[in-house]
Amino acid sequence: MSRGRKPVKDKILFLINEPQIDHFQLKAILMLTNTADIAEAIGEMKKNKKVQLFRLLPKSMASDVFSFLDPDEQELITENLADNEIGQIINSLFADDAADFIEEMPANVVKRVLKTATPEKRAAINQLLQYPEDSAGSIMTTEYVDLLEDETVSEAFNEIRSTGVNKETIYTCYVIRRDRLLVGTVSVKTLLFSEQNEHIGNIMDTQFIYANTGDDQETIADKFKKYGLLSMPVVDNEKRLVGIITIDDIVQVIEEENTEDFEIMHALAPSEEPYFKTSILRLARNRFLWLLILMLSATITGIIITGFEEAIMTLPVLVAFIPMLMDTGGNAGAQSSILIIRGMAIGEIELKDTLLVLWKEIRVAALCGLILCLVNFVRIYLFNGRNLILATSVTIALFGTIFLAKTTGCLLPLIAKKIKIDPAIMASPLITTIVDAASLIIYFSIAKLFFNI
Q1: Residue 127's Cα: distance from chain center in Å?
Q2: Does the 146-246 domain belong in CATH 3.10.580.10?
Q3: What Cα–Cα distance (Å) separates residue 299 from each residue in 111, 220, 335, 379, 443?
Q4: 241 phi and psi, to 5 degrees?
Q5: How far is CA 403 from CA 116, 295, 363, in A?
Q6: Strand pairing class (211-212; 182-187)
Q7: pLDDT digits (tens, 9 = 90+) for 115-154
Q8: What distance in Å separates the CA atoms of residue 221 and residue 56, rounded to the nearest whole number?
Q9: Cβ of 308: how many Cβ atoms within 10 Å?
């Protein structure tokens, strides 16, 4: 960007906040601005300005901008529009965007919106809302181009020209029989380079990737990444075409899944609301349960220390090394678990790789353990009266802790996957608690053996 030149968003914000708004100039800028950027600008305005700017948008842009807005802003704008204006927006939205909007709105807004929708749009919305949350059916759209296998290329182009303007994508067309059974796909590129009288059934691709309406959205996202797809057909149990999923929906799914895993891995209950729009009560509730579980599980550590009270009283210096052992073990376990969880998320690691993963982590644990133990032995020996027995016992306990933490950290996510729970649950907070308890048992058992306590 050239120096001194304002971004378009800043220009919009400047003009809308002027005492005397230059509507002509503002409309001219809006016409040349990306709809996502306009939505971002609306998100930074005061409430009355949000509605004011939205009313200035050309009808051809209003629904696109509306689909990019946050639910709170959509509700605000809906409440300030007339019924016919709401109808124009809802009927211009793609079915999946309209369904997402309806899901987020309170009952009074939903009733008003559906009243203004056309019967066709209302039927499409209701169809999408009947599918389970996070399923392929819930994120698909019903706006796509379908062609019959006995149509010619010329007939196909006529159909694309007449209906394509209202479809979410026209690059890939879906070939069906008259009973809507999906039999292939054909790209517009293939159509362009085919003879006009060629039948679609002769040029279609029959080796296509598809999803069932009940498939989990995370599984769908994995297929998009694996095969580099821009869209994917969705079929029912009889393999009849009912919708498609496009890449923009999958980007949102990947973001949601990554956010959920991140929150679980850091002992937070998943939340779908942005941070600043989540109430203090909700934030506290999301954190409280995990904090309570981890606090109560930490009492195990206290019980173990109490069980070795005699050893501590005999040799109080043992207490000084407890934080080092527990922190090192927790960090080592967290490193392994996070790497394994990530590998599983991107499809690099599967359950059948368990023994390979374990063998690799054993060797990593041995190498890391030897290096850390060497440094630790020298440190303890030099700064604790050159006590060879103390340095040796703590060092052996450290090696055992690292070995246990690394192997536990890699196995627990795989076990979680095996028993069909989210592997992210097995990340750092839970692993740290388990390793803390185990490291103390190892430490005090070795100390009692070396010092004959």
Answers
A1: 24
A2: yes
A3: 52, 42, 24, 30, 18
A4: -70, 125
A5: 64, 25, 9
A6: unpaired
A7: 888 888 888 888 888 888 889 998 898 889 999 999 999 9
A8: 37
A9: 19
Q: What is the enclosing helix (H) or strand (E) of 87?
A: helix 83-92
Tell me, yes or no, if the pTM score tops 0.90: no
Domain with CATH 1.10.357.20 in the chain: 298-451
Outline which parts of the chain fall under CATH 1.25.60.10.
8-133
- CATH class, domain 298-451, is mainly alpha
**Buried/exposed 25-60: b ≥16 CB within 10 Å, e otherwise:** ebeeebeebebebbbebbeebeeebbbbbbeebeee
- Which residues have a Cβ under 8 Å from the Cβ of 266 and sit 6 or more positions away? 427, 428, 429
Q: At what angle do helices 107-116 and 83-92 cross, to 10 degrees?
A: 80
Nearest to 100, CA basis, from 210, 211, 217, 268: 217
Tokens of 211: 């999803």
Domain 8-133 CATH class label: mainly alpha
